[in-house]
Write a sequence for this structure.
């Protein structure tokens, strides 16, 4: 009798163990989402609930897309690594990092507390090189950019600090000017009415003290009286532009675009590349 009970318990234990292993294997992706996806960990209880309802997340396609993106990243880095500008950049700076975006490969070095440099290789829809730009920053404030035809020579001849001294820029004021996004007259110039400003102060992050460059996020609660959605969108976009220029230290004659300060001419070139890609 005891032997029979032991056998039954052993079989039940084996069934429970196998079932547990099976359930965990099915819930593995839910419990351990890939770090690069930056999705929240749901926990065992929520994942088990999704398992029972047949709605467990499937990262298969996301993983394929990620692997494809990584392969393209490696291809682009290999494609440009022997360009004279890239060779000069690596020869000049020891702490080079690389990021790959939808329309450009960016090489950067330095630190935010002092001098830093960034060189961008923009490519077209066929991933062929379109144009190059190079930027120097000091304490996150844009100092200058090299002309495309002279980048490799200038990189080899000067570092960011040395070249800044050669162009002899005007000294920076020793005071902190009032940010334009806090001045009612400046907000009016960019199409933000008093009603829009009041609405954004209550229901968005547009006027939060801390700004991280992520753009204006607003609660979906409807529009204030006599405020057009298109006009409000333009106001939000313009406030975001002002705050990003302040955050990244853009000069008055520069614009903020895709994480860097640049001249309006350079921005037009970058936008033209994007428009060509959209057409195709």
């Amino acid at each position: 009798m005891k032997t029979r009970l032991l056998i039954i318990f052993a079989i039940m234990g084996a069934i429970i163990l196998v079932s547990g292993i099976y359930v965990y294997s099915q819930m593995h992706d839910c419990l351990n989402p890939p770090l690069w996806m930056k999705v929240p960990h749901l926990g065992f209880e929520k994942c088990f609930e999704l398992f029972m309802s047949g709605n467990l997340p499937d990262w298969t396609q996301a993983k394929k897309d990620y692997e494809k993106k990584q392969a393209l990243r490696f291809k682009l880095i290999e494609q440009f690594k022997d360009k004279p500008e890239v060779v000069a950049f690596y020869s000049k700076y020891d702490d080079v990092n690389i990021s790959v975006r939808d329309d450009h490969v960016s090489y950067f070095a330095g630190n935010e507390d002092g001098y830093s440099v960034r060189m961008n290789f923009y490519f077209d829809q066929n991933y062929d090189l379109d144009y190059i730009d190079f930027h120097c920053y000091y304490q996150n404030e844009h100092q200058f950019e090299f002309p495309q035809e002279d980048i490799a020579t200038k990189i080899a001849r000067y570092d960011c600090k040395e070249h800044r001294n050669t162009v002899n820029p005007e000294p920076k004021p020793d005071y902190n000017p009032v940010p334009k996004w806090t001045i009612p007259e400046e907000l009016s110039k960019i199409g933000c009415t008093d009603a829009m400003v009041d609405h954004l102060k209550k229901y968005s992050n547009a006027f939060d003290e801390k700004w991280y460059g992520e753009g204006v996020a607003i609660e979906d609660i409807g529009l204030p009286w006599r405020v057009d959605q298109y006009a409000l969108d333009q106001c939000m976009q313009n406030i975001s532009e002002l705050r990003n220029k302040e955050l990244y230290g853009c000069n008055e004659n520069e614009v903020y675009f895709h994480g860097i300060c640049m001249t309006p001419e350079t921005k037009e070139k970058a936008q033209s590349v994007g428009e060509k890609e959209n057409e195709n």
Q: What stands out?
A: Strands lie at 97-100, 104-110, 115-123, 129-138, 141-146, 255-257, 260-262. The chain has a mean pLDDT of 76.
